[in-house]
Amino acid sequence: MTDDITHRPWPLVGRRPQLLLAEEVLARGTGHGLVVFGPAGVGKSRLARECLRIAEERGYAVARAQATAAAAAVPLGAISHLVPTPLLPDDPLTAVRQTADHLRSRASRTGLVLLLDDLHLLDHTSVLLLRQLMDTDAVVLLATARTGHPGTAAAAGFVDDRVARTDLSCLDPRETRELLVAVLGHPVSGRTVHHLHTTSGGNPLYLRELVRSALDRGSLVHDGELWDLVEAFTLTCPHLEELISARLDQAPAGTRTALELLALREPVPLRLLTRTVPDGRLDTLEDSGLVHVVRDHRRVSARLAHPLYGEVLRARLTALRHRDLLLLHADLVEGSGARRREDPPVVETDWLEATGEIRRPELLAAAAGQAAALGDHARALELIRTVPPAMRSFPLWMLYGRTLYEAGEFTEAEEVLGGLVTRAPGPREREWAITARAQNLVAGLGRTFHEVWPVVEEDWPMPPDGTLSAGLLALRATTATQTWNYTEAVDACAAFTALRDAQQEHDSGPAAVDPELLVGMAEVMSSVFLGRGAAARGRMAEVEAIEIPETVSAMSRETLELARRTMRVLMLAECGDLDAALATGAEYAGSAHGDVRMLLITRGRAALLAGDLVQARQLFAEVVRASRRHVAYMLPEALSLLAATAAQLGDMSAARRALTERDRLGLPESMTELRLGPAWLLAAEGRLGEARELLLGAAEDSRKAGCLQPESILLTDVVRLDGAALAVDRLTELAATCSGAFYRARARFARAAADHDADGLEEAACALADVGARLVAAEALTMAASLHHHEGRGRKAQACTRLAEPLLARCVGARTPALRTRSHLAAFLTPRETEIALIAVEGLRSREIAAQLHLSIRTVENHLLRVYNKLGINGRAELAEALGGVRV
Q: What's residue 86's pLDDT?
């Protein structure tokens, strides 16, 4: 893999507009040109070579030249191989004519394209000659030029009404993901994409070197589902360090201290940084492309132009130089008056890091809070642990417990948060500690609602009237939803609303925004799972209207925004708008400091319902990767859904692998959806009867728990596995009880399948497609086509097949039983015959099938004989093709 990446060209990604412009220039013919501008490593030469390849395909002759600093010392040095000798230097017109004639002699009938790399380094004589050649229509010029170089202005002089200019920028995160997947051949985890994109700055050259180094070191690994970076990955590599060092060595004289200071403490206010540069001029650093000036309202600060510059600069610092720079930064901040709120904590951390001494613990606490808000949990814990326990305030202990949770240190978080409850200085602080502890118990240690709530009641004794505060009611609602107790959550939400209304009537003021928002999201989620789509939509609108106050910490704000985005995706999917759900969830921040797993798994569910199995599989795999440290929370669910998705893609080995990992956890099946994975693996193996039985049992458990939405999904899967008669009555009841087009579409699908109603299946397919459930819609059309064919309506059968094709095109790789038996003759088979036929396709002998299905060998062979007769085939050799030509 490493050799391939090292030696073969990487694909061009995100450069379609530039390629279209190049094709337009080539279509104009000789005398025209295109100059590609951009910073070093952005892919200018790679793009130019692709343009040259296109020119060759169009019949142009091609020539290449490379301008260099060394060649610039010699007139015509870079293009001497293109110039006839001897030239007549005293007669410029003749020299141009001779050169033009020489180049035309090398050209094809179409013309000659000259690729000139690094136009900004071209000597003056060559510039003049090249300009004259352009004016005489001798060549088409394709050139590259680096921005931020002294010669860039001269290169820009080539651009006029005949020579186009295009500026090449770095890749955006989406393009970086696309490039990584194209190179590595498999999906890449969101965390890894974000890490590599942020570190490379979207620079393709830097990205390539990082990937190559990570592969060489074994830091970038494939776990069977995703490429992912191990935690210990070092972001620089020798070749990349050399490239960047050479770039940094070109820094203007006297600016080294400013660069090193930025490497340690960026962003640095411009007013401070100017004091480290001779004459206070920073424009030379900005002009050289090493520093970016950032304006945020009235604040103006500076950052290094690329994240890797800081990596290399820090690696070069000696311990003494590192100490001196920190003390210099502290002096600069204090000398400016340390007027900003974040200034004193910065000075304190500078002093601590430089000397190892603690002067003001409260400032270290503030610095730890800033680090936690930025998602740097390791830094926050490091700062907190420097403060002796006896000197830690209650807020610092709270921050310690919450940061331990965010860092995945759940056992230690329980020790810290459990001890805080009794030490809280007041009821509000006590409520905060209880809330944080409950969150850790559920999402960190995997405790159930009935295990967590007694702990809460012990920590917070109930008043005589048993009335909970608004905050604890919000906690009860969120804890219930996190542990799938939706009826309990609805009751808590109702109690919260009643308390809020009572407080307003007595002029006690409205409930705090945080509890209001948490209760609203809990109510949305509960409404979805209880089949109350209309209520969920209405409540979601109220939730989105709630403003998060400025007093909420950045870490809490991001957590709340992630939860709100997740609830919207869930609500849209439930209300029958799967495309909107997928679009809403697509643009999540890969840099998010909060826990994005719930958003990812919700997006994955929406993709699975829509039939986008490839996307669903990647999302579930990301949740699995991110949940392994949590073990009990979300991991079993993600593994089961991953298995279900892999099985529907025909990858039974991946499905078995996911279920084996889930079983090793040894955890109880607390969610009925956990049985989706085993059921779909059975279906993929052809054991449809066992799969239906498992799904029906899970659906019944969902019904008893009042969770109607999962029940509807499970029963729809029963219909998809040739069990419509077993599910149609209950799905019809659910359509009458629950709100939403999705429930009605599922019921229509079940009724038509149970009645073998081809026209009804077509109508159901339209209804399913309208909500975005493309895979089930395609399966319904496949069933309709088989029935039409059986009734002799060939044209209608063909029409259904054509309607299914665009739906299946968006369900890449789907290999469900309904699609595998898409032969029209397969409609004649009974469910038992279909089941035995699918197992036989896998190569099992009659004795093995009989043992698997608990039948006699004679019964199996009789069923197979009837299958052969109905399908008009002679035996097993023709069975796979007769069933649609697809083998699992």
A: 60
